[in-house]
Hints:
This protein is α/β, with parallel strands linked by helices.
Amino acid sequence: MFPKSRGARLKEMITPSIREGLQTKGYQLVGSHSAVKRCRWVLSSLRRHGGCYKHTFYGIESHRCMEATTSVACANRCTFCWRGSTHPNALKWGSFEADDPRWLVQQMVDKHLAKIIKPLKGAQVDDKSFSEALQPRHVALSLVGEPVMYPKMGEFLRAIHTPPYMVVTNGQHPEELANLPQVTQLYISIDASNAEELKKAGEMIVLRQIDRPLFKDYWERLLSSLKAAAEKKEKQRK
């Protein structure tokens, strides 16, 4: 069905129940661990009603942007996550399948065009913008899960022939973050100002957890990720 990594007892990250949950929410699944989905700004841009902040600040056209992830799994169980319980949790890649990065890029683009862009033809969209949308020029790895968990992330980014691309991470994988090649925009989610607030909502009565991280050293990992981002010398937005 799709390229498999060599190794013993490898398993697919997207189980049948996870597949059903994500598909119900509109995710277009790719391979054994990835997905694409339509951002609401795509249709807005196709109708020339405006784009997202990336267009306002950086000139990136929303109708030429593909929102994706290379890993639907995440090491946090954030209370504010709108995906609910539809995606898996994992500390590391471990025994998951790892699809070929070049194949993954092509499959993402193909599914983005077939399932997201082409069905919008005739939906009161601008003809010129629609033609442009058939040639994506930006990849936003910010969809669901933790994209930097994917062990072939560097190869994946290098296989994208038309940067810019942005990467959003929760800062729980500092080594993988440090090894990332240059990206146009790098975001690290910081959901509270200190370790206790990051784990609890701050109200002593409620004691609601915020990120609900799986890692016990979640705060140290976040600080290490911030340090790794600061030490990157490439010209990129952070």
